[in-house]
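Before relying on records like the one below, remember that each one covers exactly one chain. Contacts with other chains, cofactors or solvent are not represented anywhere in the record.
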Amino acid sequence: MYSFSLKNQFNKVFAVIEYEEEYSFQNLYEKDIFFIKTIWERYYDDYIFSIEELKKAKLDLMKYMELDRWENLSDKDTKNQLQLIYKLIAIISYALENDCSLYGSGD
């Protein structure tokens, strides 16, 4: 599980990547998405995403909302990957809306 909080306040977690989502996360890693690569490579470490990194990550993830990028939209794995992308965009957007860095911590 990977937890997200704002302002480096681990005790105020507002979102998590659940264990069940890790399979989709691993599949997205292969697509060379900056934010996902950064999390996956530091999954068991704490990491602070700067506002600049979050802006870059949001732009990168938004590209994958274009359904033309996906081969089989009715495939369960594809649907799960898209849902995870939407979730990550929401997490990043929340941090940017609050003008805060994003603190990530895995276990």
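Helices lie at 22-29, 34-41, 51-62, 76-97.
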